[in-house]
């Protein structure tokens, strides 16, 4: 923020500044105050900015900047909003330890803080999920704290797997 910058301009530029700070940091350490500031009062702006980064990565528009993606994933975990779980779930099955590991950490960070809401989202995400995605969701369920209904979700998948698993020959 510039000293003489109007508040409306500061709000408008906040997502761009966040992305710039995350981009230039790459995989280097960033100031903890940046995370605290972004994960606090500006959480909706930070969420949208992070979703934009993840979408750009998914569209193969980000090249050679895994640091930005990893930081976006981590920031989503720090913000802790379960609304981020569907976006994170797209990255959880990745074998790449840098990006997939950050997504798994962020997903679990939210799940441990808000297990009941996470379970509801996992149930929704499992409908029509592919086998690999379903396995990744099941892994996250196993790592979550105990929450009413979780064992039923796992056994329901075993007793009545989604069509994507039945038709692929996996049982």
- What integer is the average pLDDT? 76
Distance between the termini: 56 Å
Count of helical regions: 10
Which percent bin holds the helix content? 55-70%
Task: Reconstruct the topology from this structure.
Layout: H1 7-25, H2 32-39, H3 43-58, H4 66-79, H5 85-89, H6 99-113, H7 115-126, H8 131-143, H9 150-159, H10 163-167
How would you describe what is shown here?
- With 171 residues, this protein is an all-alpha fold.
- It has 10 helices and no strands.
- It has helices at 7-25, 32-39, 43-58, 66-79, 85-89, 99-113, 115-126, 131-143, 150-159, 163-167.
- Helix 1 (7-25) packs across helix 3 (43-58), helix 6 packs across helix 7 and helix 7 packs antiparallel against helix 8 (131-143).
- The longest helix has 19 residues, at 7-25.
Features:
disordered C terminus; single chain; 171 residues; 68% helix; globular; 10 helices
Q: What is this structure, in a nutshell?
A:
The protein is mostly helical. It has helices spanning 7-25, 32-39, 43-58, 66-79, 85-89, 99-113, 115-126, 131-143, 150-159, 163-167.
